[in-house]
Design a protein that fits this description.
The chain is an alpha/beta fold and 366 residues long. The chain has a single domain (3-353), classed as Aldolase class I (TIM Barrel). It has helices spanning 3-7, 14-17, 25-37, 44-48, 58-63, 81-84, 126-138, 158-169, 183-186, 189-192, 195-207, 225-236, 255-267, 285-288, 292-304, and strands spanning 85-87, 90-91, 97-101, 145-149, 176-180, 210-215, 240-247, 271-277, 314-319, 322-330, 333-341, 350-353. Helix 7 runs parallel beside helix 8 and helix 13 (255-267) packs across helix 15 (292-304). The longest helix is centred in the N-terminal third of the chain and has 13 residues, at 25-37. The radius of gyration is 20 Å and the shape is globular. Bound molecules: iron/sulfur cluster.
């Protein structure tokens, strides 16, 4: 069975799910309604990592829908993505960086996804889309790097990935290309079994533009042997692998778990890049978001168990106003710094805010 055929066996209906975990009859109808809105699709590999006897299992919590998703507090566009979109699939919020959301598809859908508004929707013609996007990037020479995201771009066929790379690598002003992907975590088979994809990554990374892969490990148990082997394979192609983690209730809100994850990443040569404050996303916030004070304490305690290399990451919230680093506590308030501001004049601003113990986000920024 090749990787595409394997994906056909994803768990994507409540009836299939019931073969693996207990679903309370009283919850069934609500869960069906939830996945009609936000699809469920879990690779068999990823579900095999879950302890199905444990109702609080983090792998299960990240992939199986729950009644918490009935809670609609929050927004579907917490980072102002619609405002930053200049053409379908291309966001330009910070001067030097462009974000391409090339596909709405993923190998497995995460219940905490902040792009819930688009994931699972059908794709348009990807070649047309990337041609148009490349044209807009070419017209903006200040953009020197691009993040190709989605959905998950590595779900695409190799010929499409080649086409995307050709279009982007042909833009002289682009210095490097990043791919955001969860494939190593949820579906490493895609990387372990596809020599053609590895050759493609090596071809571009060595001869055309430096490639980066940004993975998305959230829990040490995701660093399973197959995922580690997949990461090693990607690294052998010359691609640099970084990781971003979302800090989430019931997943990694324990300093030991978080430090174990970050240490585990460094051990396999993956650079911890960001730890994100979970966004106030509709149908996500109630289940996963932690208060800022609590999050900051967890992150700082985790850091105290780590060496300098493993704590190079920044703890940030990705706000409509920009990426804001959460620095810590000062005189009873919390200290923040713009890491990447939409308004360049704010770029180096440090600011204090009174943050209540239950506050989870900075609501009062322009
Ligand atoms: S793989 Fe990424 S884009 Fe897809 S559902 Fe998960 S977090 Fe969202």
């Amino acid at each position: 069975m090749n990787w595409k055929e394997e994906l056909q066996y994803n768990i994507s209906s409540i009836d299939e799910l019931k073969q693996y975990v207990t679903v309370a009859p009283a919850e069934e109808e609500s869960l069906r309604q939830i996945i009609a809105l936000h699809p469920m699709s879990i690779t068999r590999y990823y579900l095999s990592l879950a302890n199905k006897e444990d109702p609080a299992d983090p792998i299960a919590k990240m992939s199986i829908p729950s009644l918490w998703e009935m809670d609609q507090e929050g927004s579907y566009d917490t980072g102002g993505e619609l405002k930053s979109t200049i053409v379908n699939g291309l966001q330009h919020k910070y001067p030097s960086t462009a974000l391409v959301t090339i596909t709405n598809q993923c190998s497995s859908y995460c219940r905490y996804c902040f792009r819930k508004r688009i994931v699972g929707l059908p794709d348009e013609d990807i070649k047309d889309k990337i041609r148009e996007i490349a044209r807009h990037i070419r017209a903006r020479p200040q953009i020197y790097n691009v993040l190709v995201s989605g959905g998950d771009p590595l779900i695409l066929d190799n010929d499409l990935i080649r086409f995307i790379l050709q279009e982007l690598a042909g833009i002289e002003t682009l210095e490097y290309i990043r791919f955001g992907t969860k494939i190593p975590v949820v579906f490493p088979q895609r990387l372990l079994e596809d020599d053609e994809l590895m050759a493609l990554l090596a071809e571009f990374s060595e001869k055309r533009k430096q490639l980066y892969v940004v993975t998305h490990f959230n829990h040490p148990r995701e660093l399973a042997p197959a995922a580690v082997a997949a990461v090693q394979r990607v690294k052998k192609t010359g691609v640099v692998v970084n990781n971003q983690t979302v800090l989430m209730r019931g997943i990694n809100d324990d300093p030991e778990v978080l430090s174990g994850l970050l240490r585990g990443l460094v051990k396999i040569g993956v650079n911890p890049y960001y730890v994100f404050q979970c966004r106030p996303v509709k149908r996500v916030k109630a289940n996963f978001q932690l208060p800022l004070q609590e999050g900051c304490r967890i992150v700082e305690q985790a850091k105290s168990a780590l060496d300098g290399h493993a704590k190079r990451f920044k703890y940030v919230l990705s706000h409509e106003a920009g990426k804001i680093e959460i620095l810590g506590f000062l005189n009873g308030a919390m200290l923040f710094k713009y890491h990447q501001a939409e308004d360049v004049h704010k770029q180096d601003q440090v600011f204090l805010r009174q943050v209540g113990s239950a506050d989870t986000w900075l609501q009062d920024l322009p």
